[in-house]
Amino acid sequence: MVQRVDVTGAGGVRLAAWEFREAAAEADPRPGVLLLHGLMGRAFHWSGTARWLRESRRVVALDQRGHGQSDRPPGGPDVHTSFGREAFVADAEAAVEQLGLAPVTLIGHSMGALTAWQLAARRPDLVEALVICDMRASALGAASQQEWEDWFHRWPLPFPTQDAARRWFGEDDPRVERPDPGRGAFFAEVMHEAPDGWRPLFSRREMLTARETWVHDAHWEELAKVRCPTLVVRGLDGELGRAEAQEMVRVLPAGQYAEIPDAGHYLHYDQPTAWRAALQPFLDGIKAEA
Description:
The radius of gyration is 18 Å and the shape is globular. 41% of the residues lie in helices and 20% in strands. Helix 3 (85-98) crosses helix 4, helix 5 (141-154) packs antiparallel against helix 8 (204-215) and helix 6 (162-172) packs antiparallel against helix 7. The chain contains twelve helices and ten strands. Strand 5 (104-109), helix 4 (111-122) and strand 6 form a beta-alpha-beta unit. The protein has an eight-stranded mixed sheet, with helices on both faces. A two-stranded antiparallel ribbon has the order 7-8.
């Protein structure tokens, strides 16, 4: 079963946290895991991962601000603050503390991985271990941000059906070099049925704002402050290159490396069995040490 628990995030924003458990029960004393999705994602993108994680751990996935069923923070002149890095990290910190997950294992994908390692650097007392899934530490720059804005304008919204969205993102999107069913499934799950067709759960403008607050900066210094055991995982065809991933492992005081063949950026969707095989030894080692 999946149980929703509301968390109060930075600035009073209401966040939807989802606890995956076998059945209704009292407080779960097992080690905690917090799953953090990437930009445009949602907590339920982690459903497959949560199914096997909950066999040995207490598992919670967070809809981050402006995503899924969590509230959108106010816009206006403070929009860069309300969608800034400090806010996302404070939200994750609030979830760990309010739900009693510490010492927690943080598993983050893309932007969620950045949130995870920034929290681990800031609050080492809360974080036992960290998994970074296909997220770069280097700055991407203004050209990358402009590419995203142009890409958003090309979305053929609204989609007539959810399957049409799945096909476009998995096959027809000009950014797709070859059919990518995992990518199609990822985006189909963040679409909802509106009066005129299927549209994203999120605001594309807000996603650009959130991305703008980290895309121009490098994050190596924060990465070097992460003291807990950390696994850096990349898809062979993902956005994180091998050389940069291995440099991240070198910079981390307790870094480990894994890569998943035949997987792109959405590797936990592309290759769920290989994803589990990459994580399981690392997580078992953490559990043995504890």
